[in-house]
Structures are given as structure tokens and as C-alpha cells.
Amino acid sequence: MVSQGSRQVARVALTMALSEDREQERELKSRFAREGFKTAAVDYGGDFISSVNKITERAVVAAKREGVIREVHAEEGAVAGATREALSQIMPKAIGLNVGGKIGIARHQDHISVAVFFGVGLLHLDDVAVGLGHRAVSS
């Protein structure tokens, strides 16, 4: 069974990944902060295969920049691992194609979730894909 903390932080990460623009990101970030969540979001686009490491790196950098995690090996690794898990879920649709969309990151206490929401495709023939990863770290 999924714990309540895991479910809530996953919902927040998905909401951040689905945000439309920077203004909405700021509004959501503020709202979620009042509820005790730390959040970040970052846009990404490019060839999927060559971008996996860059996407992971951008997620870790955004999480540190926004104060979601500290610059501690275990917390950086948690975000990197959750991002890789999320990417592995969209890999079957994305291999060999371009992706573009947003990465949402959320933390509440010892729960960290990373959600990716990407358009996947070529030219205007896009599909959509969502992936979600979760890790636990010591608060």
C-alpha cells in the first residue's frame, strides 16, 4: 500500500510537471509551500536517448537551486534515482524520438517524487507520456 506521504508528494510533483508556464509554476510553488511541500520545475526538450543524462542533471540542479534538496550526496542521488525511474517509464514510447515538456519535483519531509510530462514524437505527430519516480531520504 502507498503511504499517504508518498501519494501526496507524487500528486504535487505531477501538478508541477503539468504546469502551463512560469507564472503558474510560481503560483503552485507558493501554494504548495503553504502546505509544507518544497517544489521545483524545469522545462526540457531534445532527442530522448542523448538527453537522459542531461534531463537527470537538470532535475538535480533545479532541486538544489529551489531548496528542495541540500547539496548532500544522498539527496542528490535520491533526485537522480527518481528521475531515472520516471524516464524508464516513458522510454518505450520515447526511444529514437524527440521529447519536450517539463520535469516536476516535490518533497515533503522524507518523500521526494520526480514527475516527467513530455510530448514524444516527430514534427506534429506527438504523443504524450508521463513517468513518476519516488525516493525516501532522511529529513
Care to describe what's here?
InterPro entries: Regulatory_HutP (IPR015111), Regulatory_HutP_sf (IPR036482). There is one protein chain. The protein has 4 helices and 4 strands; from the N terminus they run ααβααβββ. It is α+β, with helices and mostly antiparallel strands and 139 residues long. The chain has a 4-stranded antiparallel β-sheet, sandwiched between helices. It is globular. The model has no long low-confidence stretch (mean pLDDT 93).
Keywords:
4 strands, Hut operon positive regulatory protein HutP, four-stranded antiparallel β-sheet, transcription regulation, 139 residues
Brief digest:
The chain is of the alpha+beta class.
How are the secondary structure elements laid out?
Blueprint: H1 4-17, H2 22-34, E1 38-47, H3 48-65, H4 73-94, E2 98-108, E3 111-121, E4 127-136
Antiparallel strand pairs: 1-2, 2-3, 3-4
GO molecular function, one term: RNA binding
Subunit structure: Homohexamer.
Pfam family, one: HutP
Structural class: alpha+beta
Task: Output mean pLDDT.
Answer: 93
Number of domains: 1
What's the total helix number? 4
| Strand order in the largest sheet | 1-2-3-4
Can you tell me the CATH topology? Hut operon positive regulatory protein HutP
